[in-house]
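Re: the request from the purification team.
They wanted to know what the chain is likely to look like in 3D before they choose a buffer screen. I agreed to run a prediction and write the result into the notebook, where they can find it.
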Amino acid sequence: MKKFLLSLTMVFVVLCANAQRGYKTVYNPQKGRIVEFSDNVISQRGGETKGDANVVWSLSEEYAIGDNVYAFDIDDNEDHKFAINWSLNDPRIDGFTGENNSPTWQIPTTTGSFTTHFANKSGNIQITAEETVIYVSDGNGNITKTHECSENSYAAARNDDAGYYLAIRTNNNTEVSYYTLDSNTASWTTTLAGNVVGMSISAECNRLVVSVAQPEETIYVLEPETGDILQDDIYYYDNSPTQSPALSANGDYLAFSDFSGQGTLMHWNGERYELVWKTNITSSYASSSWGCGNAISADGKYVAFGTLDFVSSGYDGTVFFFNSYSPIPLWTYENCGGQVSELSMASDGSLLAVASDGPVDNSGPDAIIFRKQTNEPYMELNTSGSLTNIDLSTDGKYCLTAGKAVHSTTMGWGGNAYLIKTGHENVGTLAGEVILSGETSHKDVTVTIDGIDNYYELTDEDGIFNIRFIPVGTYNVTVSKTGYVQQTIDNVVINGETTTTISCTLEPVGMPLTGLHATINSNDKVFLFWNDFGGSFEHYAVYRKDAIEAAFGEPIGFSEENAYYDDTALPTKQYFYAVTAILGDNMETPYSNIAEGSVSTDFIVTTADAYQGTAATIDGQKGTDEWIDASVVDISDFLGNSNEIEPAGSVLFYCKTNNNKLYGAVEVFTDTELEADDCVALYVDDNGNRTFPPQGDDSEGNYWLTYTGNGTSMTYRPIYENGSVGTTIDVFDQELAFGTVDGHVFVEFSLEFGDETYMLSPINDKSGFYIYYRSHGSDYHAYWPYDVSTFDASTYNMINYNVQHNAPETPTNLEAVVCAGDDYYAIITWDNVESNDLDHYNIYINNEIIEVKGNMLVTDVEYNTTYNVKATAVDHSGLESEESEIITFSVGDVFISETLVSTLRIFPNPASSTINICSNFNDYAEINMYDISGRIVKRCSLNNLQNTSVDVENLIPGLYIMEIITKEMAIIKKITIK
């Protein structure tokens, strides 16, 4: 998808005295953001300003348009300070102090188009970039230095007031330089490949990031003191100006969104940023979305993204708000009416301010302020035009926003600006401390203001909480946590602009359950088991969360027995479980120990082997054994990327080669009706080099295999390295058939290898592939890969051609440990085999065969019984590996210590230099580390397992097995070294 960046600092003919310049913005999914200018237009402004925002003052400019805005930090007892950049006509920078709307200083500018203004949070360094000159000013608007520039520029000023950074485009490169305030000579200059589209410096001045557009499409990480490039491999698909990436105060977290419709959070590991999560931020009602706005709290706990959504009626926008530990949003706010161009978050994350184009008919707000707890707006402002820029003061008490007097997508001029007071005499704060009796951690107690919706907070590790922006009044406050006796504190008075404090202690209800275990990478359900409560109770409640840092929500299920199957767990997701006993009378025991669990991901492969096989008959029918010699790949939309989960096994892709052809089939068990516009799409990086060729080379692209209702159609479209596309052509005389088999859709096709542009032309017998299946034009059932970026070939999976079909390798490192509690369970694990066509494992236990998907089996066993166990691997055709070695164990010999298992924590995982081990076990232990070949690569002895660590810095990256051996038992843990 090609996006053209149109410079906003274009040179225009000087106008006559009464002429004014107007503009409008057009968003094109293929070409990007386009700004169109006109010298001959009558700008129609009108309409009243509406909403419940507490507006202190507003400004209306007849010709100038509101652009960058800043709400500066202040010292105690000082007035807040603000700045507005007025652009296009009558350009200038206005500075304000306190709640007075008369400027206290002004920086005149001369550019006949848009200027860009940058400042640090103190406001003591201000930088204004025009077409050919950059002005540096102090906090009173006095110009202290100038720099020449040749193209669009970006800047970032240090919050310690020591200096500033300039990023200047030069011939498709960007020169980044650092200047101290007392020198006109750069302390350092670093040249980056690509055109700068954003730059950010962390509040503590320890991390500098620069984002560049095509052809590099990268976020560079620079050392702020030296300019050294610390990282250059963060992919960033953004070719039009949007909000710069967001950094937490200490630079540990980096958050950004881009035109791929993905929001990304990364964490600094001491040497580079590594992925925390990436999540889809395409709205449920949009054909596609761009990520545009980014914000993060100072401590990195909260992240927000804003989008531009392409919908059938034109444009819309969505806001996503996250805890940093989870890619699942806390809340979303849809139907913003247009691009959400800029976000700003209070330092503590308590407020999020949003600026957007708003609806074209001005039927909805352009600026919205949210409290972090809810998508219900705290304040709204609906203007006659669009508000495209917004900034919250760090303390969250003031919000400044500005924009265009007519809608962003309407040709015109004129601007508006508004100062909003968010913390005022009608709202106050509740703070305090909650202690959990007998506990060292007082985290995740819920403190709720009764009588008003969504005013609550969770306590931190020390039991501290803080709820801001509560309407003045008298309330009852409920303090609660599962497993503790709830308390209500009556008649708590909230006064305006003050803080009320409370404190209390919660007592537990009985003892927590013990011995909770959960299966990991096993089958399509997570199996849980635990020790019986041992007293009178109604039933057990099962809780689940997606991140260890999160609080548990409502139970996911209930059980009468001390075991449970979670059949709602999704592949690739790691879950954390706890159980309680429901005692009646609204009483419930505290949470048990937390157990990690997951379902098998063995069906997810990144490489498929197209075996040498027989030629298929392309007739849309699955002949007997016709595809038995093919490799099989599960391409089901098992995460619900298209908003409906297709369980693993719903859609299968078959592939094999014969006589210079790739034969393929797609079997869709969840599509029971053959309809017009059913389609298989194949995006192919023919030579497997993980990039598309330059424009003009049509050798790589995508195929659409479509059922037309009365026949079939195969078309081919070239794709080029920058995401642009060529002319779609029909591919005639190719084999393609749609049909139904046993009541579901079955598609067969072949693609020829050859030199024609529409033919496959692999190098080294492999090609990159992205495949999807779509029924009836809009219902997507399958993706492979499941996390692909459509026009980024580096995210594609690979198909190897002409592969010899052999039996899978033999499973190794078979282990068994026994859990002794109220029941006896054997936990059997083994190493996954290297296979692109694995179907399952056969686990032979005495005279019984158990099929397992994954590499863990939990099975009940009998006391004083001996068990012999061996394993084999089986592929989709039924070929079975050689048997593994036999292991033997007797129930009663060795038991896992429940005390150790329930308290054992091994972290981080993955690890880079040190693995920490925490438990209640205070005795001698030995640690063995094995690589995937079974070789011991590290051995050490520890006096205890209480808050100790193991040095793994010298281990090469990869998967390892950690064996913890005590006098009583042995525990096996998989560890990844990165």
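For the purification team: Confidence is low (pLDDT under 50) at residues 1-18, 893-899.
Please add any questions underneath this entry.
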